[in-house]
Batch of 2 targets.
Target 1
Amino acid sequence: GAVVSQHPSWVICKSGTSVKIECRSLDFQATTMFWYRQFPKQSLMLMATSNEGSKATYEQGVEKDKFLINHASLTLSTLTVTSAHPEDSSFYICSASDRGRGESQPQHFGDGTRLSIL
Amino acid sequence: GQNIDQPTEMTATEGAIVQINCTYQTSGFNGLFWYQQHAGEAPTFLSYNVLDGLEEKGRFSSFLSRSKGYSYLLLKELQMKDSASYLCACMDSNYQLIWGAGTKLIIKP
């Protein structure tokens, strides 16, 4: 149980393009999902917490107009990187926990999306 | 402030045992998690401790001492495929996960 699916797994696109990444919880409902970014050989950095039916909570230093998050249903959150530039190239990973089983449930991660902006 | 400390890198030999330590200071405590992350992949959940003591799961065990703010992940009978980063994360009083920077474990034949 607690499977999280993320796609696409790899995106290569031109500078200025907007890119949408989807994160789905396949076998549980996730009122909260999390979006992380990880640069090579660096640690996970939480970008934002996605809340179903309300606005996302962004971490300090993360531009909410740049990284649009929509959590329209209990099983789907999307992250859109708007007008992406080469410095946005990174590994983006989503996670979710089955909080229907309790608040202390582990976060389960999608497989991540490798974004390369040319 | 909230802080998680773990060694940056460790090296061990195939077949041996290695212990990866993690110390933490958080605002409240609702459990400690260990994750494994292979290079280029997303983290996968290994263990969860909320009570003091040792939790064993096959070759991997995780220990917690709440009074000392300390945990370790013990890996036995090391295999080459165990080469990965191991992430320690604590859940604070708001059920937010605070992540350590990870320990890169290198296994040598």
Note: Residues 53 and 64 of chain B are 5 Å apart (CA to CA).
Target 2
Amino acid sequence: KNEVEQSPQNLTAQEGEFITINCSYSVGISALHWLQQHPGGGIVSLFMLSSGKKKHGRLIATINIQEKHSSLHITASHPRDSAVYICAARPPGNEKLTFGTGTRLTIIP
Amino acid sequence: SQTIHQWPATLVQPVGSPLSLECTVEGTSNPNLYWYRQAAGRGLQLLFYSVGIGQISSEVPQNLSASRPQDRQFILSSKKLLLSDSGFYLCAWLSRGNYGYTFGSGTRLTVV
């Protein structure tokens, strides 16, 4: 069993739909990261969370430390949101991120 | 502003040839710097990280090495490339702000 599990692996939705991607982890963390990887390979860091909730534009990330679970939400999804979304856990005092396998999101116009 | 530069964008090298990928950051001092690799269809793997000049930590045994000759420069090298070294290499810098890591644009290396 992976230390960081994401679901779903693949998600296809219509433009405008509300999107939720889930991440569960079994390790202790100092931070949980959400990353976005576009088809060309470039990676953008979306959020770094240690508690609660963060919002950036149409993106919202939440984390429940007790349940070891984080979610990434996209409101009013758009085709340009199509990408692979990756969550990664960073253990305390450790530089090494443990990555989830990613969720491939496709938004259809 | 804080930026990270990585080059080249693509590289095709024969087996046994040397490698040097360079990453530089601007707009920050004493950053934590990272080299990641993503093999085809696989997730990201941390190769090296550095917390300062001359300080390199290696995460996996491999055919690669890293150096940090200057505060804002991080270099990934190999003396002799293997086919298994093919992949997408990303340099990253850890920001202490809200967004976490800043990634370079990546180098797609194909060893033939």
Note: Chain B has a mean pLDDT of 89.
